[in-house]
Amino acid sequence: MSNTHAPNAEPHPSIFYPYKVYPVEPLPSQIDSNTRQEVLIVGAGPVGLATALDLARFGVASRIIEAERQVSHGSRAIVLTRRSMQILQMLGCDQAFVEKGLSWSMGRSYYRGQEVYQMQMPHSEHERFGPGTNIQQQYIEQFLVEAAEKNPLIHIHWGHKVTGIQQSDSEATLTICDEDGEQEYRAPWVVAADGGRSTLRKLLKLRMEGEAYTGNFVIADIKADIKLPTERLCYFDPPWSPGNNVLVHREPEGIWRLDFRLPEGESPEHALKEEQLAERIHNILTMIGQEVPWQLDWATVYSASTKTLSDYQKQRVLFAGDAAHLLPIFGVRGANTGLQDANNLAWKLALHLQGIAGPELLRSYSTERVQAAREICEEAGKSTRFMSPPTRGARLLRDAVLSLSLTESFVRDLLHWRTSRPHRYYNSPLNSSTHTGHPLLGEVAPNVKLGDNQYLHDHMLAGFTVLIFLSEEKSEPELSQVCALQELENVSIHPILITGTHCEPGGLHHGSHIADQEGALFEHYDIRENSLLLIRPDQHISGIWQASDNEESPLQWIHQAIRNTLCLTPCGDQHVE
Amino acid sequence: MLNKTLNNDALETIYDHLYQAIDTAGPEKETKMLTKLALILANQLGDCEQVLSAIAIAEKDL
Predict the structure, then answer these.
(1) What is the pLDDT of residue A166?
(2) CA A364, CA A411: separation in Å to the nearest integer?
(3) DSSP-based three-state secondary structure for A465
């Protein structure tokens, strides 16, 4: 007997978000071999949608399979980091997020009614986006869906649920259920972006390494006319809930996120009971001095974990986002880490499918991102031991630090909440440098303001970029030749010539020319004249060449560095023209 | 207010070791362990006046 899957076709209830129920588009027949080259993405959450849009940047078609027919039930992930906004810019949809989202940079922590810690997240005029942007996950998904619907390379199949998987060395075959029954669907690659309760992770019987922390937290979204700025507010040890803590965040549409830890032993069911929830919301509003009328939109219970799969690839299945790792909410690590996964994966999978990259490039997705997740787990573990102390000793230390923080500043940095940041692939095998241990290697290329609403990142939205830092254009003829590059090893190259002094761009280069008259670029990159930087399609720096360090000519070096980033075997001198 | 003499990395390391030591001692013996630690640190500091003012700060805001 064939199974069927009929998801909820009634719009989710919400007091601020009008849910749309998307139509169910049947999967195409696979007799036409075109569909055999498409990537199948399981999950139309932020990570699955971003992966599809990112693959489309490289001309790769994909189909997204989503069990539900609506975007996220509840606001869930509400803070996007600057890095996520930069990734959304690469996907061509940052504008909608800027318009709807609330940008912020300040966090304050309170204990016994006193502000004991404040942190201004780093920001400067050279950044296009603020350090944090608050926006509900419904909008995150809606804007990504709208971009995907406009893209002919992407199809979303709402109301389709994965129920089985078989794999061979060349493809995966998924069993997919809809209202009418079950069918088998084949794809050369499957991206598992199916969230924390990943079906594919279960079907493949994969276990995660790491820890689950005790302690449950409620998150509740209310609509209320609260007169507070957009900041991260944290209240430790409130008198009405001793030993616990409360977080308050502003969201668009007059919605406020209240996040609080439950007393030990209280069940989620009890905490979500209407009168119990109402009493605590009332207590929080009183505590923050805003006794205003409110309406509940949505509430749920979560607990913190620091867990990851040890390998994000299982034959033809690539795991990304919460399907690959479960990270604590503190430091906004869920969706923001997932978007970095998608951005790391897409260009590698695209170049792999197109036969341009060596086999190790796709493997590097797992090695780079598992390492990132492990570092995040360790860092997040430190926030978690403060926000949700796992033992009696940890609780005593936390309480002692809070007590001291009222009068003694030396402990206050222990209240730092460690926000999600872009990972640095400092030891990636894709890197090459004439300068070992250069601090920029593996980092996201720093952004620099070039003019009114113009930034350096605007030039790094597709493919590989080469930054050529030159003193005077005529001084280094060999470096000028790099400016003429358009393609190497079948990938397109965008050279950007950066000159320190007034000079006319020569006729050689086909890329952009930036006259860095005020020296902002040289300063931000802290780089000498006559240097080259190779920047990957995910804006991470994978190559640094500086003059006088070595015998290799810049042209030879850039060729070698590209081959290295693509994981092609080293080329001999005979290949260099 | 006390001067900050430890960097954040050192402070984090001490934080972790101290809470693990409390957990290892267990609820019955943790107070004795922490009192011993205070005496040892006082001896290391070698300054009675500073120790007495530290006790006064520790007594506040309990």
Answers:
(1) 97
(2) 40
(3) strand
- The answer to whether the Cβ–Cβ distance between B60 and A407 falls below 8 Å is yes
Residue written as token pair 């199916």: A194
* Chain centroid offset of residue A515 CA: 32
Q: Measured between alpha carbons, how far is A163 from A176 in angstroms, rounded to an integer?
A: 6
Distance (Å, whole) CA A93 – CA A114: 41
Which chain A residues are Cβ-neighbours of B55 within 8 angstroms? none
Mean pLDDT across the stretch A229-253? 94
B contacts of A403 (beta carbons < 8 Å)? 60-62
What single DSSP character describes residue A11? P
| Token pair recorded at residue A16 | 């601020």
Q: What is the CA radius of gyration of chain B?
A: 13
Region of residue A526 (phi > 0: left; psi between -120 and 50: alpha; otherwise: beta): left
Element housing A190 (H / E): strand A190-192
Identify the sign of the CA torsion A306, A311, A317, A321: positive
Using CA atoms, how far apart are residues A534 and A463, in angstroms rounded to an integer?
11
The CA-atom distances, in angstroms, between A315 and each of A61, A167, A171, A368, A405 are 20, 7, 9, 17, 51
Answer for the pair A115, A109: CB distance below 8 angstroms, yes or no. Answer: yes
Helix (H) or strand (E) holding A302: strand A294-308
Does ipTM surpass 0.85 in this model?
yes
Q: Which of A237-241, A572-576, B7-11 comes out lowest in average pLDDT?
A: A572-576
Cα diameter, chain A: 77
Q: How many CB pairs under 8 A join A and B?
A: 57
3-state SS, one letter per residue, for chain B: CCCCCCCHHHHHHHHHHHHHHHHHHCCCCHHHHHHHHHHHHHHHHCCHHHHHHHHHHHHCCC
Please state, as a whole number, how many other Cβ atoms lie within 10 Å of the Cβ of residue A118. 14
Banded model confidence at residue A475, pLDDT cuts 50, 70, 90? low
Dihedral angle computed from the Cα positions of residues A109, A111, A113 and A119, in that order, rounded to the nearest 10 degrees = -20
Query: Are A393 and B1 an interchain contact pair (Cβ–Cβ within 8 Å)?
Result: no
Indicate the residue of B4, B19, B57 with minimum beta-carbon distance to A391. Answer: B19
Task: Answer yes or no: are the C-beta atoms of A558 and A543 closer than 8 Å.
Answer: yes
Tell me the pTM. 0.94
The CA distance from A545 to A432, in Å, is: 8
Q: What is the β-pairing status of strands A487-488 and A491-499?
A: antiparallel
Using CB atoms, pick whichever of A392, A413, A414 lies closest to residue B27: A392
The pLDDT confidence band at residue A187, using thresholds 50, 70 and 90, is very high
List Cβ neighbours of A260 (8 Å cut-off, separation of 6 or more): A217, A218, A241, A244, A245, A246, A247, A280, A284
**Contact with chain B for residue A406, Cβ under 8 A:** yes
Q: What is the mean pLDDT of residues A321-345?
A: 93
Task: Give how far B5 is from chain A: nearest CA, Å.
Answer: 8
Distance CA(A154)–CA(A64), nearest Å, equals: 8
